[in-house]
Amino acid sequence: MIEEDEELPPPGSVHWTGRAYLLITFGGALCALAVALRSPVPLFAGLPLLLAPLLAAGQGPPTANADLTWEAEGLGPDVTVHGTLRGDFERSAPDILVRLPPPSGAVEAEPVQLERDAGTIRFRARWRFTEPTILNAPTPKVLWRDPLGLTELPLGGARPPLPLERYPPGLRRVGDIRLHRTVQLSGEIRSRVAGASGEFYGIREAAPGEPPRRINWRATARAGRLLANDYELERTGDLIVVLDLRPTSAGPELDDRLQGIARAAVYGIAESFLRGKVRIGFAAFGEFVEAVPLSTGRIHRVRLLRAILASRRSDVAGPAERCALGLRRYFRPGITTLVVSSWTEDPAFDLVPYLRRQGFPVVLLSPSPIPLRAGRGGLGPAEEALAQRIERLERRARLADLWVHGPVVDWDDYWSLEPLVRTLRRPAHRRVS
Amino acid sequence: MSAAAEPVLRGGGLPTAALLGFAMGVLGLLGGLTIYVGPALGVGAVAAATVLRRVRPRWLGRLNLLVPLVALAVLAATAPPAPSTELFGALGALGLLLWVADDPERPRGGGRRALPILSVAALGVGLAWGVTLAFPSRSPDVALGGALLATALVLLAVLLGGLPRVSVAPFRNA
């Protein structure tokens, strides 16, 4: 979860609901009717209807703030959000409503469950995402509404953001892979960092409290003072992930969805490799390259998450050469480069040959638009299946041309990235369907 | 993006519906419509609204308030001026507010929590009805004047914030 300063929105003002306006209209009409008919009965009937909205406006909750804490859990497409609202509600807890619409691309698996107590309101929402995504959950709207439902008051308080990262569950294992193609020549990077394990590096003066296992006793005996061993920290290869944000001929709507899926995959891959202490670099390419340099650790994870969340479809498509040259400014060649791009038929659009020419060994992960286009042609089930099959074969045939530059993964089952995992695990095995 | 799910409806709510049905039925009985049409209109409207507010989709159910409001307006407009019809006209409106507070979409105890609002509205109506009843003349103008005076007094009190709030029992988890 991103650690950010909690924003504290000010509480809103009391306002009437549609029901209050309805009562006022009928109350006013009854009063007018009473005067017109010179009969007090409509006036007696209209009097409470007129008074109730005014009286309700005079009511109010004991507190105008409700502080939110929430977290998300789940695997794959399912997500469960648990949240707690704390405030000095006293007796008005039943009159506090929590509106939590599902985020874009998700459907509600079950209605929001609320548990109210004197000082806390706990809620639980279950959503199911139709495709991998990474976004901040929409902030719940917390309202106080009087018991008659005539007036509302939006409550303020802390509303921390809740990032939702849903990506294929198989990506959790991708971090175990030892990346080999990290320099111009095959092989792992030799670490420049000395540490407590790995290959022997040298001898140094022992520090106070040095563990006995680390002491080089033979060298100590020779030198007559305590000396300890240093080791080169073991490290697997580095990885650059390039996210292609250029607009394609598929149209903005489809581009946004495909790039949302790509963002989720990028984050899933980065997070998984970061767990294995791999250094990850990230570059987003729209019109220009925006990069996060190679690094690892928890802070880098947050940095990457922010960069990925901030990356949006570019209105202008930059030339592929610019991406390759821009990448050279941030990263040294030879590092395994994963390009996530919704590939189009235009050869000038392909980043792969240009990156390859600049010395980056490229793996292309291409989210396929075919599943997103399914059912849009107004075809019957049989024709739809046939059309999809033909389209898939055509896409495979075109993607096959890119294999000369590096492995290509056609990603059409959005909740599985097994082909990519296999490709990274055995890069020598070129053709992976 | 899908729409937010419809809230879960809880059971209950029949006592307030019965109370409203009784007030509307008596108003229909005392009113200007025929002996069968008046009560049938009052009770039927309440029954229809109670069913309607449990209907899905909820946007249709939210129209439930219109039905008893229209019925109340018709019954009040056709009722002859008399202390009993004035009283049941007011009780019908108060019963309607109580029925509204007992919303199946909201936690139980809505009527109890609405007591601070309903009691002040009832006070205003009671005051108006008391004024009209106390006068020996049964002229409709006196009743009208009394009701308007009471309304003005209650509104003044509300605006000045001088009305004491009625406390209710501490809330327990439903």
What does the model show?
- The complex is a heterodimer of chains A (433) and B (174).
- In chain A, 30% of the residues lie in helices and 25% in strands.
- In chain A, helix 1 packs antiparallel against helix 2 and helix 4 runs antiparallel to helix 5.
- By secondary structure, chain A is an alpha+beta fold.
- Chain A starts with 14 loop residues before the first strand and ends in an 8-residue tail after the last helix.
- Chain A contains ten helices and 19 strands.
- Chain B contains eight helices and no strands.
- In chain B, helix 1 packs antiparallel against helix 5.
- The relative contact order of chain B is 0.12.
- The interface between A and B is large, with 57 and 70 residues.
Low-confidence stretches of chain A: 1-6, 181-188, 429-433
- Name the CATH class of the largest domain in chain A: Alpha Beta
Quick one: which chains have the greatest interface? A-B, 57 and 70 residues
Radius of gyration of chain A: 30 Å
Number of helices of chain A: 10
* Estimated share of beta-strand residues of chain B: under 5%
N- to C-terminal distance of chain B: 32 Å
- Proportion of helical residues of chain B: 55-70%
Query: How would you spell out the order of helices and strands of chain B?
Result: HHHHHHHH
Determine Rg of chain B (CA atoms, Å).
18 Å
Question: Which outline of chain B best applies?
Answer: globular
Number of domains of chain A: 4
Sheet of most strands of chain A: 6 strands, mixed
What would you call the shape of chain A?
flat
Report helical residue fraction of chain A.
Answer: 25-40%
Q: How many domains of chain B, as an integer? A: 1
Secondary-structure-derived class of chain B: mainly alpha
